[in-house]
Amino acid sequence: MTVYYVDTNIFLNVIYREQRFYENSRNFLQKVHDGEHQALTSSITLLEVALDVEESGYLALVDKAIASIEDIRNLDVVSLDKTMTKQAATFVIKDDLTVHDAYHLATALCHKAEAFVTSDDEIQRKIGRYIKTMIPEKI
Predict the structure, then answer these.
(1) For the domain that residue 60 is a member of, what is the CATH number?
(2) What pTM was estimated for this model as a whole?
């Protein structure tokens, strides 16, 4: 079974019901939950979601948003370790990734994800030489 790394924006697409991305992201996450796919994401995802939801003015919904991610079966939320942190630093320096995007890529690579699922065109372009990138509707 293919192991997918899930970028933060996929969860935010669903949380905010973003018209352009909601349906495909929701369907993908439902397939993970139902066991059709195995997936992982970084603990940084939880941080990014919490900050984004709070900054958007929905402070009361932060815990619910985080719980909705943690409740997805067949999705591992991976903590950062020294190896991932060192690798992330290299990606920031060499590839001009943000610290958070570098953590995502390092987590995906260290945990042998076969594809990086994101709806972010810029990160797809920046990390494509390291890992296959996919949008939810192509899975």
Answers:
(1) 3.40.50.1010
(2) 0.96
